[in-house]
Amino acid sequence: MSEETIRLDGEKVTDLVLPFQIDNLDVRGRVVRLGPALSEVLAAHAYPAPVAQILAEALALTALLGSVLREDGGQMTLQAKASGPVSLLVTDYLAPGAVRGYAQFDPEAIKAVEPGAPLETLFGEGYLALTVDKTLNTERYQGIVSLTGASLAEAAGEYFQNSEQLPSLVKLAVRHDGLTGEWFAGGILVQHLPHGEEGGPRHFAAEAQHPNWQHATILVNTLQPEELTDPTVTLETVLWRLFNQDEPRVYDSIPIHRGCRCTRERIQSVLRQFSFDDLMNMREPDGSIRVNCAFCSKDWVFERPQEKE
């Protein structure tokens, strides 16, 4: 597996988020493609195909949403909790570009689930929570919606409708190369911006039936999964194919990388919160304490606690 995906002309085309705006349509958006970073996250566990696919979609969505946080330390967390074959899915983005993710599932129940199955089949009853901490020192914002709709993209659209009340469209796609074992995920988010009268303040309302928005959604809905996940095509090219007549304006791309935050110091600080008796109960047969990181699957081993005097 290559460390990054680069075209023959030297341009990096994966593990990027590209923000854009189309002034003619009152539309803003972001497009993402994940490659090696996604493969690294998925390689930490032997996920069955349906679980790997929904986790890949969640990571692409998390990169789309989290990359709006430009200040170091800002964090966006996506969490799905449910009663079905997939009981827990957690992904997060830490500015300026680190993503990680993890899923819990029932090994027996998931055998009856096909990749790309509807959310109800994957999760059963549950909810989707998106939590935003703009910086480590600011208040937390959280939005919660039920896990309804056929796909994670539809659930995200419901979140935007409830929280931001902006007409929004999300498309997500996943590709697995059976020969190389590499995973790719892509996604696009477009939103209709509030518009104002000439010479007046901008109104904090957008119209779902506005002709500009309808035009934008028609174009985005022509986008094929292969275009979002093709590691040979730049994100700029994808946007140009969609909106070449509408003069899209792109901003600096945001690099994405896998970033698990487990460290010996961080885990030690957690262990110090337990009583001595609790620590003794955590011991392995050799007396050490072993802590496994659910995100990266790394084992951290600590010497056994000192006995009470």
Task: Spell out the key features of this protein.
309 residues, alpha+beta, Hsp33 domain, six-stranded mixed sheet, 26% helix, globular
Characterization of the model:
With 309 residues, the protein is α+β, with helices and mostly antiparallel strands. It has two domains: 16-197 and 208-258, Hsp33 domain (3-Layer(bab) Sandwich); 264-302, no CATH class. The protein is 26% helix and 28% strand. It has nine helices and 14 strands. The chain has helices at residues 36-43, 49-66, 119-123, 152-163, 211-220, 225-229, 235-243, 264-271, 276-281; strands spanning 16-22, 27-34, 75-82, 86-94, 98-105, 126-133, 140-146, 168-176, 183-192, 249-250, 254-255, 257-258, 289-292, 299-302. The strands form three sheets. Strands 1, 2, 8, 9, 10 and 11 form a six-stranded antiparallel sheet that branches. A six-stranded mixed sheet has the order 7-6-3-4-5-12, covered by helices on one side. Strand 4 (86-94) and strand 5 (98-105) form a beta hairpin. The chain is globular. It starts with 15 loop residues before the first strand and ends in a 7-residue tail after the last strand. The model is unreliable at 196-205 (pLDDT under 50).
